Structures are given as C-alpha cells and as structure tokens.
Request: fold
Amino acid sequence: MSAFLATIPSPDRGVWHLGPIPLRAYALCIIAGIIVAIWWGERRWVARGGTKGTVIDIAVFAVPFGLVGGRLYHVITDPELYFTEGRNPWKAFAIWDGGLGIWGAIALGAVGALIACRRRGIPLPAMADAVAPGIVVAQAIGRLGNYFNQELYGAHTDLPWGLEVYQRFNPEDPDNLLNGVATGHIPLPESPVHPTFLYELIWNLLVAALVVWADRKFKLGHGRAFALYVAGYTAGRGWIEMMRTDTANHILGLRVNVWTSILLFAGAVAYFVIAARRGPREAPETLVSKDAAAASDASAPEEPGAEPEHAKVAAEAPAPEKPAASEASGPAPGSAPAPASAEEPKKTDES
Reply:
C-alpha cells in the first residue's frame, strides 16, 4: 500500500461521453494549449508595439496549418501504424486518437503564419518572438493529454514519482484500448514507469521561463527568442525521447525524433548567433499592420493652422495670363472687329 501511494496513479480513462458526443482529454488539452498560446502571444505582441488582435488573425491561418503538419509528421515518421498489414489506413486521419508531431506542426504552422503576416504587412520573425513562450507552454499543456491517454511513458522505475499504468478494457472494440476504461486498476507488467510526459511538461515550463527572462534582459528580436525556444526545447526533448519505450523508427541506432532534435538544436543555435548581426529589436512602428496603419492615417485630423488641401491646390495652380493693353481696350472706334483665331479656345460650361 505504501509503495502504491509513493507513485503517480493514471486516470482510468481518457474519453468521456456527453450523450453521443465523445469528450476526449487529449483534444481538450490541445485546445486549451492553443488558447493559452494565443492569449499570451497577443499580450506580448501588443507590449512590443504591435496592433491588437493581430495574433488572433495570424492564428486563423497558423493553427489549421499546424494541425495538418503535426499529423503529417506523425504519419510519415510512423507509417507502420497505419499502412501495414492488418492496420486501417483511415486511422491516419483520426487525429482525436492522438499522434501529433510538434516539428510538423511548427513547420507547416509557420507557413500559415507567413501567409497571414504578409497579408498584414508585419515581419514573421517578430511575430515568432512574441508567441515563442506561449507555444512551449501550449506543448506542456498538451502533454497532459498523453497522461490521460496513458501513452509515451518510459521504462520501469522504482523512483517515488513512478507512474502507475493500468490495463484498459474496451468491450466494443478490444483492439482500441486507447478509448477503453481501466476497471479494477490492474497494473501493466512494466508498471510503475518513468512519466516522461511529466519530465517534458516540466522542461517546457522551464524553457518558457528562460525565453521570457532572456527576452526581457537582452531585448531579443529578429526571431532570436523563437530560436532560443527551439534550442531549449530540443535540448530536453533529445534525452527525454531516449527514455521513452513506445514504438518508433530508428536511424543509426537513434530514434527519428532524437535526430530531429539534434539537427534543430544546431540550426537554432546558429540562427541565434547569426541573427544578432541584424541589430536591435524591431522598431514598434514596423509591427503595426498595414490595415491599422491605413485606418490611422485616414482618421488622423489635420494639424492646427494647416492650410486645407483644396486651398493648397488652388495656390499651386498657375495664374491666368493678363490680356495685352490693346486687347483690353477693345477695338478702335470705326475699325472692323478682328477675325476669330482658329487656335482660340472655345468657351464651354466647364470653364
């Protein structure tokens, strides 16, 4: 009994049903993370001088792109889960059952953000700096979904914070234990295990704190805060990934995500150093979206004492030429009127 109390218990299920509607903890955690990232990113963007509401507009593009990219990365790196004999390939679209690769989400989400930033006329690196800590906190919240799904854990451990994992049952679909329920709390043979999801959750929160501290102290700009997030996250993801026991493809003895972490860490550090040459953080006026700037110019009042625009135009117009003295005095008495010149302009109602 004392050994059980010294471990972390797992929830008995990850799905609840509200009538015919399933409420999945994994999806709720993803949604909560997105909301936090948008809210915090918006506050940081406005604090830097950006237009209010811009992060929400960017998210309309970035979030759908990111979800698609995250699923594509997962399916591409683990195709045997969906396209081998006995597997259902349509499950590749079942995003609610878990399986999002963060690097696919970041990569394709950045494409969506780039499209939106260009539409608003703002620099993508500055936007990336604003949302960086919110993104890594969203990842931390998303790891709670792995806890409810009872997945992505490590090997057996006798440490006090070991995670108890239980056998789940699903009478309607015996092969789909992810949607099953743990009745009787029967531990799996490897239980208790390392809660690697918890390790990554804590690491992500530490990375968020690091990015905020460095950004305030050094006024990071031009994507350097985002690069620091990537470098910090991958430094932890690499060793945590090697602790996991879930099925994964290997290259030269290392899991695919470990290689991805190594390459991205090197790239992020290089970018962090090179981007420092671009000088101080972006000026606040460059963060104002073109729509807001146009609206501000249109509604700006004229300066006191300034000459109205129509008066300026009239003042700049050339003065009409004065007629010659002979023409001004008219024809001499008794003389015939001068014939009309062919080049004399005709008077119209517009003159």
Remarks:
- Residues 124-149 form the longest helix (26 residues).
- Confidence is low (pLDDT under 50) at residues 308-317, 322-351.
